[in-house]
Amino acid sequence: MPRFDVTTIGEGQLRLSVPVGKRLEQITQLDVSVAGTEANVTGLLSRLGWSCGWVSSLPKGPLGRRVAREYSIAGLDVSAVAWRDTGRLATYYVEYAVPPRSTTVIYDRKNSCFATLTVDDIDWDYLLDTRLLHLSGITIALSASMREIQLEAIRRAKAKGVKISFDMNYRSLLWAPEAAAIGVKPVFEAVDVLFLARGDARRMFGFEGTPQEIVEQIAPLTNAQYIVTSLGDEGLIGWDRVQFTHQPAREVGIIDRIGAGDAMVGGVLHGWLQNDFAKGIRYGVLTAALALSQWGEQIVTSSEEVETLLDSTNSDISR
Known about the structure:
This protein is of the alpha/beta class.
């Protein structure tokens, strides 16, 4: 029996943000939190009771320890992190805004400890001792070595019979849509669960139409048994190659949008791990709403709370 339910490989970062109404060029202080798309997903799954492991690289010192400690609190196993005496921690800056301006993100992640990992640095026995390997398009875009690592991870996972989930997570600051469409082609062909948001499907492939039509256009690109497409404020649609499952978005008071997509992925995989993909779509809509209603990218919740809220419409005070 595998040691883990889910493992992943991804970068840990510090998120430095200013509140709505402030501009980065005038800042006098920053809010600091921990971020990392793959660890956001597996951190949530850890809180929901699954055994999850994270492969990454961090610099020795207080900044690296801050990242590792926060994920450890969520229950994520960080024993396979490669600690470096030299190198830097990736960061990114967020300038929150309301219309007519958009929230702005500025990355500072080149030549980080993680981005310079090689295939030989990975503890493959650890990474593949799992039911499911979760990967992201953010990581594959970081560097040539990251692309090599992800493709090798997929090759080894397929050889061992480990299932693979992949969240496209397209980022225009990392690569152009045409390059992304070409770069992920071998990944799409190999994965078992594919997450591709409607906006990414439009930007990368020009797909348009109803949610069901978009999923049907995605289908020939992948051999995945399960395809999940986020529809923004219209909710989530999933397809298991037999039937479609659509779940409307939950009503939510939005506090912080960043990280909601990772929470959605974690929710869907929570259902998939229970062999209930349709319920996973319902979980995904809920966990995305929970992320939107909390500050930061680490959702503080539990399996008991998620089950209670899954069918609840009551937003009164719980006394």
